[in-house]
């Protein structure tokens, strides 16, 4: 992280006074004991006590806080529920954490336009809860959906096990209200499709809290499918399971969910929730089909046949809703389940072209041996998003560092086979220093100029996403000067 | 086609585009960027010094049906790409429109052009817009720098989502040279339910009932009388159409269920297979307003309010996206069109006969201008395409 500015830390009392003036009452947290819960997010290996935490409850307060911080050079780290797995909400010693937890109301449900207007602190599942009685739901479903907030989902462009068919957060948003670091308030989108001008809503989604603070979100809601049916398919090899995934897609089927777990993950999950998983299988697929009953029945038959051709030796089709949910219970509890077999685990998030799966899993297992660490793999198989869980013990000297180095090697491997560093968890602090694996200096400069257009003082969530922070003035320099061409050697027309 | 007066540059590589931009920037020249040159009527026509066409950059770089991805150069023609993926039972799910007749153009739309304009057809309500299928790109910014963003996989959050920013930026930020998009399995079957003679308000009620049930409607359009008279329908009165796509059994089951739901809206006919496909091409291409001399508007509205937009604006209108998109041919002043639509919570884009996007005010205007400057500080690329420069 950037070195803390001691002069700012020395101004703590003045900063607190200003924040308390804007947010009276208990909205400013500064006592050391009360700051502890804010020290880290879902990536708990990284910890930092912030200078202070401010918890506004109106957009006007957010605007005033940002304007004051901008004028006084104070850094701000926005925070939703703090469930980021990439350190997106990691505080700064010389920065203020801006928590949106008090923005917890569903403002409007508009069934006629199939959307809901919510505050950013509403949980992901809270949106579905508000509309399910009318037969609707909000589609993206990150595994942390009971806790994570829609504001955080927007910042991270969160996915989930059902995003293969229904898309990520960005595909399910219609609009937002955004407060810039200057305190200016802008509305992007609304209840209508497509952007009026540049698609800044799409740009802000997944920007990891670096461009602005979201204070209101308009999401699309969908009618619930008539029914859903899930299949558990056990295979004697990872290759056979991977090939089946390819066959399903090639047959023109896009399942609502298509998950894979390897043997260590299957065993951990089964021991934890007793979902009926085949513990001898080398790989397990969970395939969910949704739609009318006729479709689910027809496609379940197709999928069974495809799996049989690849040698699946365990097949179970959910008979009812309770059984379908129990199939998912194991997968959704995979992280805590792995948490029971090792003192600590470190979750990676690369995406690869699906066809490279056997090759990548073999290499991951080789690396595990080299590093002397265990690994369990869960995998959003339909879209190639890999979640290796590296097992380690933080109490043992050097193990965390080994786990991190192992994780970095996995992500480099993902990029090397044509994939990317992160499919849904974000870059944050965790993968910041690996950005150079995917992007060259010019690519990163183009991205950082976008940052400068929104936050020229680089005060919003600094230290995240980009390995080096260039001052905006540096980035603004043009390569064309005084009539001289940048590339005089190139052919002319 | 392009003006005779300006012979277009036709670079064959990204480096030649770099050189063209560097040269233009140095000489304070301005470049109009075109692919198939089919959408040149959009936006005010500011004078340019150079026309740059991506036509020669037309290579298909990689098509991986199993990975659901397609990478091609910007000048690759949409028709060619659709033929290619259809050969593998796949489709460009955002149903890219051509609009050649609509905009009286003669060229062939390209991948770069369709994505840069974020053009989506009727399936947008189900499958998302062009921007939702845009996974990664390489391009040259208005600074003359080659850069890339995104990737070649379907799920990726590494770095800012510059794909969203480029989609719909109409070539005003960068010249895209190579794009990766997502492809999806094509539907095995389709059927379209037709309702007849509904007034605009009633048609919107029918579309809403269809969209709010679990029928997975992939097209919802309403053609008032003037638009419904044309072939293949040759209907005597208004037609409201709802498309269902997927596996045969599923389409049949959903069509029956939807028919029951819509029983209160009168007689229901069905168009199957090729007849259905032909009908939706007509909707996609806005055939009913092709050749109309009046200014042509796309009104993006909250769907339930779709009919309200044109009802405050004399002219001829038809509706797609379950009411979320109203096409309007009207002589009304641009300011009035924009005000009426804005008051309903939407925005209006003029495709022919005026500035595309209206004047902007407040902090958002400043932000949009700073984003433009981040990529094209000298204003080299496509001046006036998105908004009139003062």
Q: What does this protein look like?
A:
The complex is a heterodimer of chains A (493) and B (390). Chain A has 493 residues and is α+β, with helices and mostly antiparallel strands. Chain A contains 18 helices and 18 strands. Chain A has helices at residues 6-10, 12-22, 32-35, 59-72, 124-131, 150-156, 163-166, 200-204, 238-250, 263-273, 293-309, 321-332, 334-341, 357-371, 399-416, 435-438, 441-454, 472-475, and strands at 28-29, 52-54, 75-79, 95-99, 106-110, 115-118, 136-137, 173-179, 185-189, 213-220, 222-223, 227-235, 257-262, 283-291, 314-317, 344-347, 374-380, 385-392. Chain A has a seven-stranded antiparallel sheet with strand order 15-12-14-13-17-18-16, sandwiched between helices. Chain B is of the alpha+beta class and 390 residues long. The two termini of chain B are 27 Å apart. Chains A and B meet through strand 9, helix 8, helix 9, helix 11 and helix 17 of A and helix 1, strand 7, helix 5, strand 9 and helix 8 of B.
Major sheet: arrangement of strands of chain A: 15-12-14-13-17-18-16
Query: Which architecture of the largest domain in chain B per CATH?
Result: 2-Layer Sandwich
Overall geometric form of chain B: globular
| Largest interface pair | A-B, 103 and 101 residues
CATH topology tier name of the largest domain in chain B: Uridine Diphospho-n-acetylenolpyruvylglucosamine Reductase, domain 3
| Order of helix and strand elements from N to C terminus of chain B | HEEEEHEHHEEHEEEHEHEHEHEHEEHEH
Distance between the termini of chain A: 47 Å
Secondary-structure class of chain B: alpha+beta
Principal-axis shape of chain A equals globular
- Secondary structure: number of strands of chain B: 17
Q: What attributes does this structure have?
A:
heterodimer, A: 493 residues, alpha+beta, seven-stranded antiparallel beta sheet, five-stranded antiparallel beta sheet, 18 strands, 35% helix, disordered C terminus, B: 390 residues, Uridine Diphospho-n-acetylenolpyruvylglucosamine Reductase, domain 3, Alpha-Beta Plaits, 3 domains, four-stranded antiparallel beta sheet, 12 helices, 24% strand
């Amino acid at each position: 992280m950037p070195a803390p500015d001691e002069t700012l830390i020395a101004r703590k009392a003045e900063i607190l006074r200003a924040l308390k003036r804007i947010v009276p009452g208990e909205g400013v947290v500064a006592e050391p004991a009360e700051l502890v819960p804010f020290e880290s997010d879902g990536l708990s290996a990284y910890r930092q006590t912030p200078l202070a935490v401010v918890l506004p409850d109106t957009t006007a307060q957010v605007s005033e806080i940002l304007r004051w911080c901008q004028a006084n050079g104070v850094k701000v780290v926005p925070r939703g529920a703090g469930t980021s797995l990439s350190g997106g909400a990691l505080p700064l010693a010389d920065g203020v954490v801006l928590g949106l937890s008090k923005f917890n109301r569903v403002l409007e449900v508009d069934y006629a336009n199939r959307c809901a207007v919510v505050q950013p602190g509403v949980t992901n599942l809270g949106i579905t809860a508000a509309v399910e009685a009318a037969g609707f739901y909000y589609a993206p479903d990150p595994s942390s959906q009971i806790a994570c907030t829609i504001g955080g989902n927007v910042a991270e462009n969160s996915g989930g096990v059902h995003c293969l068919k229904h898309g990520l957060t960005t595909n399910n948003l219609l609009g937002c209200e955004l407060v810039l670091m200057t305190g200016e308030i802008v509305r992007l989108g609304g209840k209508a499709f497509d952007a009026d001008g540049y698609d800044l809503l799409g740009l802000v989604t997944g920007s990891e809290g670096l461009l602005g603070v979201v204070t209101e979100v308009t999401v699309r809601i969908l009618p619930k499918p008539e029914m859903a049916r899930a299949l558990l398919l056990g295979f004697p090899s990872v290759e056979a399971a991977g090939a089946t995934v390819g066959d399903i897609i090639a047959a023109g089927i896009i399942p609502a969910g298509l998950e894979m777990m390897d043997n260590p993950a299957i065993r951990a999950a089964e021991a934890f929730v007793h979902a009926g998983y085949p513990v001898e299988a080398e790989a397990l697929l969970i395939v969910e089909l949704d739609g009318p009953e006729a479709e689910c029945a027809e496609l379940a038959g197709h999928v069974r046949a495809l799996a049989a051709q690849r040698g699946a030796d365990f097949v179970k089709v959910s008979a009812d809703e309770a059984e379908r949910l129990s199939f998912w219970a194991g997968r959704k509890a995979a992280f805590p389940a792995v948490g029971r077999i090792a003192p600590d685990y470190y979750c990676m998030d690369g995406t690869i072209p699906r066809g490279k799966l056997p090759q990548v899993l073999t290499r991951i297992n080789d690396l595990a041996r080299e590093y002397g660490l265990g690994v369990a793999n869960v995998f959003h198989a339909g879209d190639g998003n890999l979640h290796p869980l590296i097992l380690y013990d933080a109490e043992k000297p050097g193990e965390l560092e080994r786990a991190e180095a192992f994780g970095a090697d996995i992500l480099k491997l993902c990029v090397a086979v044509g994939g990317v560093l992160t499919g849904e968890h974000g870059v944050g602090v965790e993968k910041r220093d690996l950005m150079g694996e995917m992007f060259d200096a010019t690519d990163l400069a183009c991205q950082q100029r976008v940052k400068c257009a929104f936050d020229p003082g680089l005060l919003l969530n600094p230290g995240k996403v980009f390995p080096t922070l260039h001052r905006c003035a540096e980035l603004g320099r043009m390569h064309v000067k005084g009539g001289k061409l940048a590339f005089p050697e190139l052919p002319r027309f | 086609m392009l003006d005779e007066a300006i012979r277009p540059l036709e670079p064959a590589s990204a480096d030649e585009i770099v050189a063209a931009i560097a040269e233009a920037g140095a000489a304070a020249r301005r470049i109009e960027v075109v692919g198939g040159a089919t959408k040149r009527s959009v936006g005010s026509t500011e004078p340019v010094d150079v026309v740059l066409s991506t036509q020669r950059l037309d290579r298909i770089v990689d098509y991986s049906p199993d990975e659901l991805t397609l990478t091609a150069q910007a000048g690759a023609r949409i028709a060619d790409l659709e033929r290619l993926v259809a050969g593998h039972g796949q489709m460009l799910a955002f149903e890219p429109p051509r609009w050649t007749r609509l905009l009286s153009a003669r060229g062939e739309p390209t991948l770069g052009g369709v994505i840069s304009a974020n053009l989506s057809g009727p399936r947008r309500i189900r499958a998302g817009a062009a921007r939702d299928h845009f996974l990664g790109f390489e391009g040259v910014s208005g600074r003359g720098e080659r850069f890339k963003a995104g990737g070649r996989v379907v799920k990726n959050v590494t770095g800012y989502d510059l794909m969203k920013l480029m989609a719909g930026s109409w070539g005003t930020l960068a010249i895209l040279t190579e794009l990766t998009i997502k492809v999806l399995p094509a539907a095995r079957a389709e059927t379209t339910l037709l309702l007849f003679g509904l007034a605009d308000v009633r048609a919107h009620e029918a579309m809403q009932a269809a969209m709010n049930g679990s029928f997975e409607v992939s097209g919802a359009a309403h053609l008032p009388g003037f638009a419904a008279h044309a072939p293949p329908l040759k209907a005597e009165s208004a037609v409201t159409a709802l498309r269902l796509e997927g596996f045969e059994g599923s389409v049949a089951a959903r069509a029956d269920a939807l028919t029951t739901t819509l029983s209160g809206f009168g007689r229901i006919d069905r168009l199957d297979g090729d007849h259905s496909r032909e009908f939706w091409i007509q909707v996609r291409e806005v055939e009913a307003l092709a050749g109309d001399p009046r200014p042509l508007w796309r009104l993006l509205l909250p769907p339930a309010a779709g009919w309200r937009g044109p009802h405050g604006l004399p002219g001829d209108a038809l509706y797609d996206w379950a009411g979320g998109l109203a096409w309007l041919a009207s002589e009304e002043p641009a300011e009035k069109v924009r005000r009426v639509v804005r008051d309903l919570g939407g925005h209006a884009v003029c495709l022919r006969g005026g500035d595309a996007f209206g004047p902007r005010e407040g902090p958002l205007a400043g932000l949009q201008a700073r984003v433009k400057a981040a990529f094209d500080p000298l204003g080299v690329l496509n001046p006036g395409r998105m908004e009139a420069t003062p």
